[in-house]
Fold these 4 entries.
Entry 1:
Amino acid sequence: MQLLKLTLPVFFIIGLSVIGYFYHAHWPPMAQQMFGFLPHFLALTLLALSIYFNTARLFYQAALVLVVWAAGWLGWAGLPHELMWLLAAAVVLVVWLLPERGLISWAAWPSHTLLLILVGLAVGLASRKPDWLAWWQTLLTWPEGLVDDGLLAPTTAGLLLLLATALIISGWRQRDHHALNSLLSLLAVGSLLSSDQTVLRLFVASAFLLVLLFNALHRTWHLAYVDELTALPGRRALEERLQRALGIYALAMVDVDHFKQFNDTYGHDVGDDVLRMIAAKIGQVSGGGLAYRYGGEEFTIVFPNHGADEIKSHLQDLIQAVANTPFVVNRRRSQKPQEVLVTISIGVTDSIGKGDAASTIKTADQALYTAKKKGRNRLQMKR
């Protein structure tokens, strides 16, 4: 579902660009003229965002497409296409593999230096050692008559295919959005290098930069609204959900029993694993509940259009499901595995008679406190 949310806007932008390309000739002259500046505007916006958020990957992905698109203005139009392909592939690979160290920091200078060396090496080889490209192109040759003479050499095509395959596998299996952005930048550069049509190049560059802008904004939204550890929506998302709630709703506060003691005994890494397990169970709660991480070891579940009495059975099932789920610690080979009991306590109320969301949360918190006083691993309701 998460992958679908990311890919649908991408296909929408690509589809819109295809339609725009075929109908571009029918646009008013003023619209055509203004559209010519769109890649500049998008690239500058992305570069500004990358500087503001201090992200090197976004900066280099946007800069790569902008440079290839404006190669003629930069005086690089004379560089062989084969060399441009290899340089673009090398930049994409480096940007993908190197960890994000920020754009403006001492830790980022090795990455910046490596990329500058790649660019300098490519330009230097083209001007001072042009024979090496001919040697590279003759390492492998296409069967005679099989393809056009202007196609890339088999060695270059094979490297590009391997890189694209690795990016696809990483993006699909590991949900790596950096790999997907790198793949899109590679495809955009390929389209720009393969076409001499100004209008087509304009649409390709604009489409990729729009997709990159969408992914950057989505990533920013994700960091602001989704908890990184549990992948549940965070407290800000909960507050906005309650602000726009219409009608009644039930609200449950969930707390992991003895979590501090658990952390002190087994370590914070194991504690994080417990929170992930609890979050996965809470995310599967029945009755239409929406799960959020409130903070620390506390979670919140909202049941829209339900009173507290209606969802008690669903919360009781959740308590039972967590208690019945075995959790194993000391899973290293040098240590004997140990199964421990993890339980949760829940306080529940509803919005009936409450003045605002803060009052509802406070009442649910009070119910949770009562549940813990009565022995934990239980559900407590308060009006």
Note: DSSP finds 15 helices and seven strands in the chain.
Entry 2:
Amino acid sequence: MIKSKAIGLLKKISLLVFTFFAVISLYLNLPFVFLNNNTCIYIDNKENFNTFSANISEKTRFILPATLKIYAEFTNLDRHLAAGEYCYNYHDSILSMMRKIKYEKRIRHKFTIVDGWTYQEMTRHLASAPSLSEISLLTNNKLISSTLKLSENNLEGQFYPETYYYAYPDTAIDILQRAHDFMEKRIQMLYQESETQKFFKNPYEMLIAASIIQKEASDSEEQKLVAGVIINRLKQHMKLQMDPTVIYGLGRSDMTLLKKHDLKSDTPYNTYLYYGLPPTPICMPGEAALYAAAHPKDSNYLYYVSKKNGFHQFSETLAEQDLAIKTYLLAPVKKMA
């Protein structure tokens, strides 16, 4: 008799528990609980579940923190709250949201460092990248140099142009660290296999040359020719006389703004005034420019001039260069009939 009553009691308790969790499940499966469409929730590293549930309840209707706590304890979600950015639509349920967190289906973003960007251009774009923290640190060059343990104090040219994926709570410094590590490995590898070690004392000098090549030519084959010109001029103790270095020293970015008197500007980057390479890179060179600096095309060229079509005319002598200038830069513009 007592045994049958106990069994009956257990059945009732089981039914109540089942009913309770069925109601909770139904409750958490309700659609249209988010107050706004495309709601994003940010979970920090080691965030307390109580803080998280309070944040959720502010962004939803009908959902109480206590309900979330019960579900989380039942599924062990409260012990593993994966940091990240999770976004939801207006029609999503709390349960679908919790599943995304449980299986770490966080939102991923990407940031691309473009070949030829200066450090200033890169950080300006990075500062506007979505869901990236510690943006304010981008203005602290000394801190960044220290954090990244740079062998050179100047940040220019130290970051490899590539697309980098990230997710909250990644920081701006995280992106820079990865880009710098990639550039460091790549420049070291290319320098070890390069044919120009006797002209570039170390990988950093080769990086400087690659940055000039990047600004001088966009075609990969021409970049190798430009690299050859740099080597030839260094061998003959000639000034490099390359316009992008002058522009960088003046703090400009537009080649069309360069005037004749600018070539006399006294900056350490003016390769019309000073022999050898400038003191630092002038931009972030891409893979093709880095490769060209390591493997220049062998030639006798000492000069080149723009054809105004994205390509250049290369010359071995000053007389050839003068003729090329007359042909491509000083020739009268043909009028349309």
Note: The mean pLDDT is 85.
Entry 3:
Amino acid sequence: MSLGSLGLCDGLLRSVKDKGYKEATTIQKNLIPAILSGRDIIAGAQTGSGKTAGFALPILHKLNQKENNQKENNQKYYPKVLVLVPTRELARQIYTSFKEYGKYIDLRYAVLYGGAKISTQANRLLSGIDIIVATSGRLLEHIHRKNISLASIEYLVLDEADTILDMGFIHEISQIFEYIPKKRQNILISATLTPALKNLAGQILIKPKLIEADKIAKIDTIQQTLYPVTRERKIELLSYLIGSNNYTQVLLFVRKKELIDELCLVLNKNGLKSEAIHGGKSSGARDRALERFKAGSIRVLVASDIAARGLDIPSLEVVISYDIPHVLGDYIHRIGRTGRAGKNGLAIILSSPEESISLKDLERLLGKAIPKEILPEYAPEKIYSKVKKTKTKQETKKIAGAFGEKKNRPKRSSKKRKITKRDAWRR
């Protein structure tokens, strides 16, 4: 199905044509008509499936269709769309997408997140805005400073709502709900539809339409491979895989922030130019590292799960998970950085024996076992190098017991022995 057949206005069709989009993705085929109909939505869509265009295009279309969208030149714009996201990187990505899709439409946009000058953001808001993309904490700061009123909001989008819950932002989100009209269209987008998310949906959505166009167990464009390795030799195996396969651009995910900088040092010493992005880095430092990675100046970008949310890196082919994330749903976001928009990608996991329980839980979430590739020089000897043979019944009889080896006792004869005088005495 082409995007042109979904009823979008000419300005939007021109912008998507400029970006090279032709066919609608699975989530777009379902999400765009549902939003245009005005219903509340809860949608499960994996990262990289085209979900941002899936909710941005119909919202832009509906705003463009309204008369008097802009007041007279001497009056302000009033925000009609609020998109809430968990991280600044995702906020910037969605803000950029809205601007690119809406470049032929007369609308104004603002992005709000921590780490940037609040005065600059306030001036932008006071000049008049139609669409706001924000993290919850920074938006509340502006509300408390009376830099913005949300009384005219008509559309509320919670993108990566599962992460918003996992990061504990639900309290801030609940506060924001108090400042926006109850009559609005609500759209919840998530990579995983957890029970907690469905509970939240039950509180804020009215008769929502459930869309599960992209099941997490069907990530067909991404080849997943697991390398068993001892914890002590993970860094060595990591360097070997990148070097021997000549991977030129690798996004490496690490669970612990403290380990990220250490890995960067080791990789750089091994000749693999690397930089890090995590919550301890300033917004500017993270932006510069990302731009150098996109430009090919660095080979490996080492990232925490939160910092990497919203990263859009065209044609990224390889994602490596140094470990299994604490929140299993983060794995879907990790591998979603590659294989985007139908392209092929490779997702590698380095798994140590200490992570065996987490691995089983992850495979249960995916609905299948992750294919293993065993390198004998790195694989844990205790688990992978010894092949246990199935014992036959005869071998089982020869197993040594607690008091030494069991002796093969002679079989009892079925013949009856003769009665003797001793037998008569026993009677």
Note: The chain has 17 helices and 13 strands.
Entry 4:
Amino acid sequence: MAYQYKDQSINKISIIGAGNIGPDIAFLIAKRLFDLDVTVLLEDVSPSSLIQAQTRIEQKIEQFSQNQNHSSQQKSKLRQSFHFSNNMKEVIGSDMIIETATENPSLKNLIFKQLKSVVKEKCIKLSNSSYITPETIFDKLDGHENSAVVHYFYPADKNEAIEIISLEKTDPDLIEFLFEFNRFLGKDPLYVKSSYGYAINPIFAGLCQIAFGCLEKGLGTVQQIDQSAKDILGLLIGPFTALNLSGGNLILEHGLLGLRDSLSEWFVPNQHLSEIVLNGELWKTSPRDQTVIIPEEKSGILRQKFLDGYFALTSFIMDLEICDPKEFNRICSKALSIKAPLEYMSEIGIDNSLMMIKRFCKDNKDFTYPIKIENILKNRV
């Protein structure tokens, strides 16, 4: 057996990188495809990373099998679908490769160069990235028709959202296949034209930057700003908590630099963030069950900062014209566990939303006023 869509057959999938997100992607795939006898290989040069990943996956197998009322045979079959190796040659025979190395274009490029000699010509080659454009990763390599970038969101085995970004020469049949394949895995895909950070991460990075600015101006503590963002935007967790849980501080620091250089000078790394990264620390967030009190005189200012910023950032993405607005609205909500932005703006009212965006642009001189959002909102009505 195998996963089959049209003339594409998948028997073996190799995940390169057993760090933060690789094991989650491996488990996502295995739990949906083990009944089809698909093999999932997790490869990493670090034996200790593989041991940690194996422990994480074993815990996930136990919990998933218990929730699904699996028999001992089913649980054993799921466990046996995994293979772990620190030898790149073990990926031989793979029908799909998903590279999950850190946000380093040179490292990603090197990995795919090394893979060239061990994978078959028609192997699907995917890079999981948070910001880097597919051209930066694949341009110096052959086989663009079988290559693309995918962006899984934390936690990859539970979050339904995924972005799919192609190169100019990517075969359209591959994009169609990736949509169907990811839907089979339980994902809701968003196609995005090549742009640094894609469609969703400029929103998240921008909200984090707003949170840093509020902290810098003394508008609240980390806990109060986190809570305010949750209350105002309907977030499941605040931006500081999200960075802690996803291990995203370093990625965000690099991402803000790239967004500044590629999209807008408004994006800029923050001193607080740089110190957290330098010292390897976490943000001092509050426990889940702790009540956070926000003084009334600060809650109104925080509401304005986050709401104005969220609407302005959404409008900024709409101006880029890199994805379908309706699809973006749905996937953004799922990816960030946040109120769907275009629905939220319609709920507040077009005139009020535009006023908030103008206010944000006035307060942030480097943020260019977006011109397409008014028509998009009117078309929704």
Note: The CA atoms of residues 105 and 137 lie 6 Å apart.
